[in-house]
Amino acid sequence: MRTRFLQFLKWFIIVSATSFLLFLLLNRLFPLPDQIQYSTIMLDSKGEVIHAFLTSDQKWRMKTELNEISPVLKKTLIYKEDKYFYHHPGVNPLAIARAAVMNTLHLKRTSGASTITMQVARMLEPKRRTYFNKLGEIFRAFQLEWKYSKDEILQLYFNLVPYGSNVEGVKSASILYFKKNPDHLSLAEVTALSIIPNRPSSLKLGMHNALIIKERNKWLKRFGDDKLFKAREISDALHEPLDAQRANAPNLVPHLAYKLKKVSHQDIIRTHLQMNTQMKLENLVAEYTRGLNSYNIHNASVVVIDNKTHRVIVYIGSADFNDRNDGGQVNGADAVRQPGSALKPLMYGLCIDNGVLTPKTVITDVPININGFQPENFDQKFNGFVTMEYALENSLNIPAVKSLHELGKDKMIAKLEDCDFKQIKKDEKKLGLSLILGGCGVTLEEMTGLYSAMANGGVYVKPEYFKGNFRAAQKDSLLKGKRILSPSADFMITEILSKITRPDLPVNWESSMHLPRIAWKTGTSYGKRDAWSIGYNMHYTVGVWVGNFSGLGVPELSGANVATPLLFKIFNTIDYNSTNEWYSMPKECGLRLVCSETGKVPDDFCTNTVMDYFIPLVSNSQKCTNMKEVAVSADEKISYCKNCIPDNGYKKKWYKVVPPDMQSYYDDNHIAYEKIPPHNPQCDRISGEGGPTIKLPKNGTEYYIDKKAPEPLQLSCEVGSDVKTVYWYINNKFYKRSDAHAKEFFAPDDTRVKISCTDDKGRNTDIWIKVKYVNL
């Protein structure tokens, strides 16, 4: 007896091992066809589906995640389809034996033996129902059990189960028929969905609801008889109506959905969008742009970032995605446009950090020419002496260009690249000083991200569109951010941008009585094609673009008049009547008295001073030299240098130092000012005093220039050791400020040309040349 048992055991082990090895071989030769293509879906911050895409085979197959398989869903399925699911290895031998007996007795198929695992195998690899294919199903079931856990097999079932037409999976059916996620389904809804896959052609939701209720209630009564659910739950489910109808798949926030689908390559795109706020602002933008149609302005885009989390919570690509007449499908938030003056805050902040400027530093707003670039202000007027804060508040172009020239455009470009400005990175070698006036390409996404850095103390953190695994690998490095401005410079810029005594304040802004305190900056591109207004406070950063996707310019289009009113409406909506919590001055930032006429540290002769922010050991601490004591004749008609001052018959008088470019501006506009009298003509040592000597061009020379290939003439001079800067004038018009030892070039007119050079001590030299253009 014992010998027989040992022989049986031996053969059992041999057969089992052989079968197992054969299974491993077949498993390798015939791998599971489990690469399922799901519909890409986009979720909001609450996990609700807000946009879905068809698969390439035109199916709605939305992935049901494990956490969406509720206990009710799981309990119902297992009771109905496979009560021993958690106890068999994928195949239930008893069920197979029972089905074989029943089918043999009735000479037809009356009882099935398919487990949930076998049903998954059949859905993965649909084939005709034959005994041979059933063997294949069994093999696939073993493969599934070998590779996946029981819960994962349940998940595959819920993702593949058919619901008629092109709807597959519980989540697709739940979204399309009940407009909710599977974990929110009621017992009645779950039961209705569980019976449809067995009769998908005769039980169609929305068409056969009465029949479905009848079948549903049969199963609910069985559940009650077997105590699967409480009597009260069964009673409520039996009386629950079924009004399911086929609905369109969610297609909200389409611009962002298409954008993220291209870059995420995920079945489920999890965003931070707050749909209540999104829908409110979409309606607001649509209504606002309708009011602009009479001005031939048709579109707007909006991006909102939560400053505490750096998450994008609102994304509006256009006023109406379905408006084909005005290019509604264009994503304006991701389109490259010209920013106008909207980059000036960053530039002035960099100037502060580089010790070039402070808010009260005085800049001259007069005509300039820098390498042939002659910027103009928006109103084509000049303001003379202005402070940096006034220049920023009024968005003056000439002071901005001067400041960028002194800062160096490469520093500005480098910071923009740090903030992920892609087009600027592509064009960096072609960009010039005009970039500060909008001569570059940016997107609303990038601009809103830049301003969120100013809302974050000068630290740029890349705005976060995704959440979950897609961002996990990058999140730690991203949240550290990149510092683009010091806390002090950022605070100074924010203080300037938050003032309401500004010319770009919209008319009737007082109507926004609950508007929270914000800092904002406008921008209008060349040709009035783009209107920008970007604002921030401690809670949100909001970027607004208004214009036409066709690029059509409109006279009425400007950041102040068109974009800012929408910005204010948005802040009134998302931060209504909020506390006026605001930024405090950083400990590294200081306050000091400066001369109101220069913005420099006052000397003993400055009579008017103002308080100014500065950064110790960084900001320029040079003392004011606004006044100069000059020896003049008794009648004040001539001045004397130290080499020609007479023994008597003179007096000393204080004069205000007027820079050469301002002198030219005053003279051209016939503005009276007290000039230092001309130097003593009897003095023959003026050259020794250090006045400039023009070396090129040669005084009195006639220059011939080839018409076909004109070359500019060189400007160079010699100066004393105490001179750092010279100012060049062509025919009495200011041409260029230059380093005293630099070589400059200019293209002269075909005429007699006067060239003047003035050093930073106010001494001037004039020469005359003749120029003729000829065919050489």
Write the layout of secondary structure elements.
Elements: H1 2-29, E1 41-43, E2 49-52, E3 60-61, H2 71-81, H3 93-106, H4 116-124, H5 131-147, H6 150-160, E4 167-168, H7 170-178, H8 187-195, H9 209-225, H10 231-238, H11 254-264, E5 268-270, H12 275-292, E6 299-306, E7 311-316, H13 344-353, E8 362-365, E9 384-387, H14 388-393, H15 397-407, H16 409-418, H17 422-427, H18 444-455, E10 459-460, H19 469-480, E11 482-483, H20 487-497, E12 519-524, E13 530-536, E14 540-547, H21 559-574, E15 590-595, E16 609-614, E17 627-633, E18 639-640, E19 650-656, H22 660-668, E20 693-696, E21 702-706, E22 713-718, E23 725-730, E24 733-739, E25 744-746, E26 752-759, E27 764-774
Parallel strand pairs: 1-5, 3-4, 21-27
Antiparallel strand pairs: 1-2, 6-7, 6-14, 8-9, 10-11, 12-13, 13-14, 15-16, 17-18, 17-19, 20-22, 22-25, 23-24, 23-26, 26-27
Question: What does this protein structure show overall?
Answer:
- The chain is 34% helix and 18% strand.
- By secondary structure, it is of the alpha+beta class.
- It has a five-stranded antiparallel sheet, sandwiched between helices. Strands 21-27-26-23-24 form a five-stranded mixed sheet, covered by helices on one side. Strands 2-1-5 form a three-stranded mixed sheet, with helices on one face.
- Strand 6 (299-306) and strand 7 (311-316) form a beta hairpin.
Task: Summarize this entry quickly.
The protein is an alpha+beta fold. The protein is built from 22 helices and 27 strands. It is elongated.
